[in-house]
Write a structure and sequence with these properties.
The protein is mostly helical and 306 residues long. The protein has one domain (5-54, 64-303): Rhopdopsin 7-helix transmembrane proteins. The protein is built from 9 helices and 2 strands, in the order H-E-E-H-H-H-H-H-H-H-H. Strand 1 and strand 2 form a beta hairpin. Helix 2 packs antiparallel against helix 3, helix 2 (63-93) packs parallel to helix 9 and helix 3 packs antiparallel against helix 4. It is globular, with a radius of gyration of 20 Å. 29% of the residues are buried.
């Protein structure tokens, strides 16, 4: 069974926009009264305003939530070191670039996943040290950029223009950073949480909502066995159609992105409660080690084919 990603993306558009609208209405009701937001907290390190209200007895971030934030940074850091080790080890094994088009396509995609883990670690570490706010957003934006790159890699069907892609990334990051720096509290926090989702809604997709779906569809495409395997830019990203591929690599990506989505939903609708923060931070315990495991499995499989 084959899937048309473009048709699926178009059909998902109205549903995703509806879900997004419901979430926005929910957040608006939770954040009332506007335009009088709660008093803003400041960072203990930089003394700059951060995206948290001054805690009271009901909204105080518990020790458990703080502990999970620190552990999340450590675990994502370990996953990052694992990806770096895998890349360096592979460089000593295979000094020649891959020649097979399908293997090269997989190599590029695996590199995107590795960079995604790297920048997520930087964002989590910066958030733990600086606290999440305007200053942190200059680093956190790259997490969203890499999600954009993953979605673009999963959707594109023809030759990819790296120049156009670079220009798009620069414009996107500069625009979001400028808007975030100029908006007042509470709107800067809300805008940054939803900017990746709002901007991509215009393309009928939302980053976090789309990744599990696209990973699952790509996994199904990779596990299919057409009479003539596609090559080059049109080849499947998760391993091609050969029977010697590892079937659960796509499952790792689907499950990890779904866990990350659950954590983000909890963070958005949880109103900084202890449970929502633990779920959000805890999602990093599982999601990004699974991404690192995918890189390991994919790299091991590529070594057997080069």
């Amino acid at each position: 069974m084959t899937f048309d990603l473009g048709k699926i993306a178009r059909s998902l558009g109205p549903l995703i926009i509806t879900i997004q609208f419901i979430v926005v209405v929910f957040l608006y009701n939770r954040a009332r009264p506007f335009p009088s937001p709660p008093k803003q907290e400041t960072s203990g390190l930089t003394n700059l305003p951060i995206w948290e209200a001054v805690p009271d007895d009901s909204l105080y971030k518990s020790t458990a939530a703080n502990l999970t934030e620190i552990i999340a940074a450590i675990i994502v850091g370990i996953a990052t070191l694992a990806c770096i080790f895998i890349k360096l080890s592979n460089r000593t094994i295979n000094t020649n670039p891959p020649t097979d088009d399908n293997v090269w396509t997989m190599y590029l995609f695996n590199t995107i996943i590795s960079v995604y883990v790297y920048v997520t670690f930087l964002a989590v570490l910066a958030g733990a040290i600086l606290s999440v706010g305007k200053l942190w957003s200059a680093i956190g934006i790259y997490h969203n950029i890499m999600e954009l790159c993953i979605v673009a890699a999963l959707l594109h069907k023809s030759n990819f223009s790296y120049i156009s892609g670079l220009i798009t990334i620069v414009i996107y990051s500069v625009t979001v950073s400028m808007a975030t720096s100029q908006l007042d509290w509470y709107w800067d926090d809300i805008f940054f949480k939803f900017q990746g989702k709002f901007i991509y809604v215009l393309c009928r997709l939302i980053f976090d909502y789309s990744l599990p779906i696209l990973f699952y569809i790509s996994m199904k495409q990779s596990n299919s066995k057409p009479t003539q395997a596609p090559v080059g830019e049109g080849s499947p990203l998760l391993g091609g159609s050969s029977g010697d591929d590892i079937p659960y690599k796509g499952t790792l990506l689907t499950v990890s992105s779904l866990i990350h989505l659950i954590g983000n939903i909890s963070n958005v609708v949880g109103n900084n409660s202890t449970v929502s923060l633990i779920i959000f931070n805890g999602s990093y315990f599982f999601a990004f080690p699974l991404y690192a495991l995918y890189v390991h499995k994919a790299q091991k499989h590529r070594n057997t084919r080069v």
